[in-house]
Request: fold
Amino acid sequence: MDTIRIWDNGLSEAELDDIADRLREGQIMIWPTDTLYGIACDALNPKAIERVCRLKRLNPEKNTLSIVCPDISTASEYARIDDKAYRLMRELTPGPYTFILRAASRLPRAFKSRTKTAGIRIPDLELCRQLGHRLGNPLMNTSIDFDEEDYAVSPELIAEAYSQQVDFMLQGPDGHTEPSTVIDCTSAAFTLIREGAGDYRP
Reply:
C-alpha cells in the first residue's frame, strides 16, 4: 500500500491529479474525512465499488451506499433533492451529516438496489471537496472498521490494519471515533436514523 502524507498546506496540484487518475483506474483508498477515516473509490466505477463492498461486506441490496460530493450542486446530479432537503443541506453542509435521498439514474447499478437510495455526504474537510472537484464526480465512501479506538484515531495503526486491502492511503491528522449523523430525507417527514457527530433536531 502506498502512503501519501498530507501536510498542513494540503496536497499539491500534481498529487491531486495523480490521486484522481488512480481512482479513475479503479484503485481504492483510505482517506480522512470530518468524521471517521473512510474507504473510498470512484463512485462511477462499478468494479471499484464491488471491491469496496467486498472489503466492507456490504450488500447493495440491503445496505445504502454513500457518496461524497464537493457541494450541493454536484449532489443534485446524483440524487433527487427537493426544496425541503435542499434547505436542510444548505443549513448543515459542509458538515458531519449523511442525507439519505433517492438515487438518480447517473449512479451505477449498486445504488439502484431495493431501496434505490444513496447517502449523500459533503464533509467539512477541504481535501474531500478538492478531490471531488478534481475527479469530476463523487466518491463512494464507507467508514473504516475498528475494534479498538486507537485503530480509528491513529493513521499509523489504520495503515497497518488495511495495508493489504487497499491500494493507497492519504495519511492526514488523527481520525475520529464518531460517525456522521444520518438523516432520511426520502419522505415528507425527515427521520433521524443515526445520531452522530452532527447535531440535528427534527
